[in-house]
Amino acid sequence: MSESPPLSVEGITVRFAGIVALDNVSFEVEPGSIHAVIGPNGAGKSTCFNVLTGVYRASAGTVRLGDVRLTGLRPHQITRLGLGRTFQNIALSPRQSVLENLMLARHLLTRAGFVSTGLRLPNATREARRHRARVCEIAEFVGIAPLLDVPAGLLSYGDQKRVELSRALCLEPKVLLLDEPVAGLNAEESRTMAQEILDVRAGLGISVLIVEHNMGLVMGIADRITVLDFGRCISHGSPAEVQRDPAVIRAYLGTGRGEDAAAAAQLGAPHGEAAQ
């Protein structure tokens, strides 16, 4: 796969009935990088994701994938252009098999029309075989190939998360958006998911944008981090830079030296360095 284009977020502002959910937020997901958006509850992380994928309309600002402007497009148009996402709350069809759930993602990539598909004309049949083969490749890559015939609702929560990741990859995204990929997972499942995210970047050349509360995951795999608080960007940089930023420490736990040390521990920085 060729290198992903940059995803540029420029001055995004979102207002809901006078409440400013995002205030002039800007950052860039560099090609082939893992970029995390973090912040306390209510910071605007989910709103940011919903703007990027066209669920919410921004009051101001622009979003671009390479040279293509995404602002104002509908979700299915943005998906076709190269943004694929998972959801914080699992959104699989529980009675359908894993294979059927993954094939649903190929719908946007299908060229055969309704009539040719319904009549099983040769061109539609060939295309369906190609899509199925690609789905099986992705399932093998993520490690869920043995589960393809199992109804999604019978899987463990951790495996359902992996199916969601696979389904997003079946969209052939240029940038993969992961909304709290390890929420609800135990330590071992979280380590597995972290490795799979790294494998996606390394093996498929896809840029990854993550919203996540698990600071161990974020600090362990992210190349760059953007920190939001009350809808504003308060810090941006490498994990080491963000760990030591007093504004980030105050946003998480408080303003006193003792509280700063506790926040530094939560963010993964040595107490002495962050509290100086």
Layout of helices and strands, plus pairs?
Layout: E1 7-16, E2 19-29, E3 34-38, H1 45-52, E4 60-65, E5 68-69, H2 75-81, E6 83-85, H3 98-105, H4 114-118, H5 122-142, H6 157-169, E7 175-179, H7 187-204, E8 207-211, H8 215-221, E9 224-229, E10 232-237, H9 239-243, H10 246-253, H11 257-267, H12 271-275
Parallel strand pairs: 3-8, 3-9, 6-7, 7-8
Antiparallel strand pairs: 1-2, 1-4, 4-5, 9-10
Features:
about 280 residues, alpha/beta, Rossmann fold, 6-stranded mixed beta sheet, 10 strands, disordered C terminus
Word description of this protein:
With 276 residues, the chain is an alpha/beta fold. It has two domains: 1-82 and 173-243, Rossmann fold; 90-172, P-loop containing nucleotide triphosphate hydrolases (Rossmann fold, 3-Layer(aba) Sandwich), CATH 3.40.50.300. It contains twelve helices and ten strands. Helix 3 (98-105) runs parallel beside helix 6 and helix 5 packs across helix 6 (157-169). It starts with 6 loop residues before the first strand and ends with a helix.
